[in-house]
Amino acid sequence: MRIRFADGGVEPSLRTIRALPTARQQESVALSLAQHREVAAALIIDTRGRFLLQQRDNVPGILFPGKIGLFGGHREGDETFLECVVREVREELSFFIPPERFEHLASYRGVDPYIAGGTLWRELYVTRDVPVEPLRVTEGSLLIVEIKDVPALTPRFAPTADTAIREFLTRPGSVQS
To answer: In CA terms, which of 12, 16, 57, 71 is 20 to 30 Å from 123?
Structure first.
């Protein structure tokens, strides 16, 4: 068997080809081994006051497959939670939002309710007035939600999205008229 590459190159005959694990498979393995997770995510609001949420891929091996979530992810190295959310939003939306545009929304530190035996440190943020047009989603897909439609979608929310939206909607002056 010969393998032909897109650039026209040819690999000599091989008996076994072992694919590298996908990012999702690596995440799944990391989650099963992890005892402690540190994550940051953002509730993103567009220029018309709508929530910009992530419709998560419906694939095995990720937390909350097929649910509606926030954009965000795991903290890397010694970055702060704010640096993490800025990086994750840029990676997942292909759009840079400066750190000063993120407002802290909620924190959680304690037992990880989603990973047996684990602990979780989660920081949630909100950012507003984000234009939709330049966004290019790289994980899942973009779901634009009017505030009036939130109650009907609540059963489909991943827990973090549910927490962030509830926190946001109960803050005085948070909803734009």
So the answer is: 57
In a domain, 4, yes or no: no
Q: Give CA–CA dist 104/88, Å, rounded.
A: 16
The number of residues in the chain equals 177
Other C-beta atoms lying within 10 Å of the C-beta of residue 177: 3
The neighbour count for residue 94, using CB atoms within 10 Å, is: 12
Amino acid at 140: G
Quick one: tokens of 61? Answer: 């091996």
Query: Stretch 136-159: mean pLDDT, rounded?
Result: 96
| % the chain with pLDDT above 70 | 79
DSSP 8: S
Domain count, the chain: 1
CA dist 147 and 34 (Å) reads: 35
**Residue 174 confidence (pLDDT):** 74
Mean pLDDT, the chain, rounded, equals: 83
Residue 117 lies in a domain: yes
Inside any domain, residue 118: yes
